[in-house]
Q: What sequence folds into this?
C-alpha cells in the first residue's frame, strides 16, 4: 500500500468545531461527543496561537511576537521549557558543525544560552569538548554540548516571553482545532476555567506529538512504519552530593574500553553495570549509563531508564510508563550508591515530571525529510537552519539495549521550510520533533537546539504570513531567509 492510500485507510478526518476527539494514536480510532456552543467560552483572540511551550514553542512564540503580532502561547503544564524543564532532559546537544569548529545553531538558541550563563545557569558550548564528564565521555556527535540548570531555564523562558509580549497560558490543554473548511482558526482549550476558545489567524503545532495537526486532519504516521516501533522513552533524573573527582577517577582509566557491539553501547560505568548484573541487581535494558555532569560540580543528569513501546498519545500507556520509569530510577539509585565510587551518598534531586518521549507521531507534508539528506549533508534551497546532530535512533537494533547511532558524513545538513507545512490543513505550521520527516531523520533533529531553530523559523514564517495576509505555502522564501538572517540565524 502506498503512503497516500495508507493514510487514507487510517480514516483521518478534520475535527469540527463541535467535536471532541478522544486521545488516540495515528490509527484514526477516535470517538467523539457532541459539545454545545454554550459549553465553550469565547476567551481569547490572537494573531497567532502556539500550542506547546517546549523549546520549539517558546522560540516560535518569541520570534513571532518580536515581529509585532499578537501571540498566545498555550501549554498544558506549569512552566515553559518542555523536556528541558519538566522532563529534566539535559544537556542541550551540540550546536556546532561536525568538525567542532563552528557554532551553526545560533539565533534564539544562543540568546537563551547567554541569558542562562548570565544567571549562573549554564556553561557555554564553546567551553565543552567531547570525551569529558560533561558529555558522558562520549566522542561522536557530542562535541560542544551545553550543560544548564533547568530551574534557571524556567525563569529565562518566562522573562524572554514576557519581554517579547507573548501572552502565556499555563494549565491549558489542547482539546480540538477550530476549523473553517481546511483552514485552522484557533483551538478549544480545557483550562481550570472550563472549555475556552482561543481564536487566531494562524496556529503553530509545537506539541511534539503533532496533536493539533492530527486532529485538524493532517496525515501522519506513528513511529517507524517499516518496523512498527517507536523509540523507547526515558525518565530523566538529577542527582547531587556526588564526589565528582572520585567518579571521574573511576571512569577515565576505562575510556579505552568504550565500544559499541551490534548496536549496544558499552560506555560509561559498563564495568559497574556488569558487577550489578552478576549480583542480580540490574534488569535495565542498558549495558552502560549515560551520566552527564551539570553546571554545579556535584550535580549530574542521568539518562539511563528505558521504557519500550510507549505510545505518548495513549493515556493509559503513558501512565504505566511513568510508573515504570520511577521504578527504574529507584533501581538506579541503589546501583549508584552501592556500585559507583563517589556516589555512596548521592541524593535524588528529582525525576522529570513528564516522561522523555523521543518519538510518537510524524506529521506528513508534501515533502518528508529523508534521513539520507541528513547523512549526505544536503542543504535545501528553502533551508531554515543548519545542524550536525547525529542520527540517533534508540532501540533500533541489538535487542532492547541496542540502538542505531550514525554520525553524518558532511560538516552539516539543512532542514527545508517545506517540512513545516502539513498536508491537508491551511494556516498551520509545525515546529519541533513532529515536523514532516521520516523516523530516522527525526532521530537527529528531535533534540533541543534544532528544535529551537525550527521553532524560530516557524514563528518568523507565521508572522510574515499574518503581516502580509498570505498562506504559509505562499510565503516567499527569500523574505523568510532575510528575516532569519536579521535574527542572527546562521544559514551558511
A:
Amino acid at each position: 500500500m502506498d503512503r497516500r492510500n495508507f493514510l487514507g485507510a487510517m480514516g483521518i478526518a478534520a475535527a469540527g468545531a463541535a467535536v471532541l476527539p478522544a486521545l488516540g494514536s495515528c490509527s484514526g480510532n477516535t470517538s467523539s461527543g457532541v459539545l454545545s456552543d454554550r459549553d465553550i467560552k469565547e476567551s481569547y483572540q490572537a494573531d497567532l496561537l502556539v500550542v506547546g511551550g517546549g523549546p520549539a514553542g517558546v522560540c516560535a512564540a518569541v520570534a513571532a511576537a518580536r515581529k509585532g503580532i499578537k501571540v498566545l502561547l498555550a501549554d498544558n503544564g506549569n512552566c515553559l521549557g518542555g523536556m528541558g524543564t519538566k522532563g529534566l532532559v539535559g544537556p542541550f546537544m551540540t550546536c556546532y558543525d561536525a568538525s567542532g569548529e563552528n557554532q551553526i545553531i545560533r539565533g534564539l538558541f544562543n540568546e537563551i544560552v547567554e541569558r542562562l550563563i548570565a544567571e549562573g545557569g549554564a556553561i557555554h558550548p564553546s567551553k565543552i569538548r567531547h570525551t569529558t564528564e560533561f558529555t558522558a565521555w562520549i566522542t561522536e556527535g557530542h562535541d560542544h554540548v551545553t550543560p544548564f540548570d533547568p530551574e534557571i531555564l524556567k525563569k529565562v523562558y518566562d522573562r524572554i516571553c514576557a519581554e517579547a509580549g507573548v501572552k502565556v497560558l499555563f494549565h491549558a490543554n489542547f482539546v480540538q482545532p477550530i476549523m473553517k473548511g481546511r483552514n485552522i482558526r484557533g483551538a478549544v482549550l480545557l483550562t481550570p476555567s472550563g472549555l475556552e476558545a482561543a481564536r487566531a489567524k494562524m496556529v503553530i503545532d509545537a506539541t511534539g506529538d503533532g496533536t493539533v495537526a492530527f486532529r485538524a486532519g493532517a496525515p501522519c504516521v506513528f513511529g517507524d512504519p517499516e518496523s512498527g516501533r517507536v523509540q523507547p522513552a526515558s525518565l530523566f533524573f538529577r542527582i547531587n552530593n556526588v564526589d565528582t573527582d572520585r567518579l571521574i577517577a573511576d571512569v577515565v582509566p576505562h575510556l579505552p574500553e568504550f565500544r559499541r557491539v551490534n548496536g549496544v553501547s558499552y560506555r560509561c560505568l559498563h564495568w559497574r553495570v556488569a558487577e550489578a548484573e552478576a549480583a542480580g541487581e540490574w534488569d535495565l535494558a542498558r549495558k552502560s549509563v549515560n551520566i552527564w555532569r551539570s553546571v554545579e560540580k556535584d550535580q549530574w543528569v542521568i539518562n539511563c531508564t528505558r521504557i519500550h513501546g510507549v505510545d505518548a498519545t495513549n493515556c493509559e500507556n503513558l501512565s504505566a510508563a511513568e510508573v515504570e520509569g520511577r521504578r527504574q530510577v529507584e533501581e538506579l539509585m541503589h546501583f549508584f550508591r552501592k556500585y559507583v565510587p563517589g556516589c555512596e551518598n548521592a541524593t535524588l534531586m528529582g525525576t522529570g515530571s513528564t516522561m522523555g518521549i523521543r518519538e510518537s507521531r510524524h506529521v506528513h507534508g508534501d515533502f518528508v525529510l529523508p534521513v539520507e539528506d541528513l547523512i549526505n549533508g544536503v542543504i535545501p534551497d528553502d533551508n531554515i537552519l543548519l545542524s550536525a546532530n547525529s542520527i540517533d535512533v534508540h532501540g533500533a537494533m541489538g535487542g532492547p539495549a541496542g540502538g542505531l547511532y550514525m554520525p553524518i558524513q558532511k560538516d552539516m545538513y539543512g532542514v527545508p521550510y517545506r517540512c513545516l507545512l502539513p498536508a491537508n490543513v491551511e494556516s498551520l505550521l509545525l515546529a519541533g520533533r513532529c515536523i514532516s520527516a521520516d523516523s530516522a531523520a527525526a532521530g537527529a533533529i528531535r533534540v533541543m537546539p534544532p528544535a529551537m531553530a525550527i521553532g524560530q523559523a516557524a514563528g518568523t514564517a507565521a508572522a510574515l504570513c499574518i503581516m502580509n495576509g498570505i498562506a504559509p505555502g505562499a510565503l516567499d522564501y527569500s523574505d523568510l531567509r532575510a528575516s532569519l538572517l536579521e535574527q542572527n540565524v546562521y544559514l551558511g
Observations:
- The longest strand covers residues 40-51.
- The CA atoms of residues 188 and 286 lie 41 Å apart.
- The longest helix spans residues 315-339.
- The chain has twelve helices and 21 strands.
